[in-house]
Amino acid sequence: MKALLDTHTLVWALSEPERLSAKARRTLSTAEVSASVASLWELILKAGKKDVLLDQPVRWWDKHVAGNGIQVLSIRVSHVSALERLPELHRDPFDRILIAQAVAEELAIVSMDSRLAGYGVQVIW
């Protein structure tokens, strides 16, 4: 199985794995998982705000994502094009690009946000 981690799942998996569900932890240990560059973008934009996940996202990314050799999925034209076909179920632009990437690359997404299943992708939590 191939899976894409949403931003919260990525941070929790690498910093607080006990916050993940048992199914999410099993998936991370058995699947080929990727992190999207969109998650780094989201972490940077939210740094210093009230809903901040990390205070120093670039340093954290370099240490935990790049430093552990986690596969990083870049944003491609096919991903952005897939946005056009997504229904308006969710307004968060970062979740929408992650879903578009999952759709375009035929990936499951590991997320606690059950609303994402409305896009026709497998949501694991």
Write the layout of secondary structure elements.
Layout: E1 2-5, H1 7-15, H2 22-30, E2 32-36, H3 37-46, H4 57-65, E3 71-73, H5 77-83, H6 93-105, E4 108-110, E5 123-124
Parallel strand pairs: 1-2, 1-4, 2-3, 4-5
Helix pairs in contact: 5-6
Number of domains: 1
Low-confidence parts lasting 5 or more residues at pLDDT below 50?
Answer: none
State the secondary-structure class.
alpha/beta
Write down the CATH topology: Rossmann fold
CATH C-level name: Alpha Beta
Oligomeric assembly: single chain
Radius of gyration: 14 Å
Which outline best applies? globular
Overview of the structural elements:
This protein is of the alpha/beta class and 125 residues long. It has a single domain, classed as Rossmann fold. 46% of the residues lie in helices and 14% in strands. The protein has 6 helices and 5 strands. A 5-stranded parallel beta sheet has the order 3-2-1-4-5. The longest helix is centred in the last third of the chain and has 13 residues.
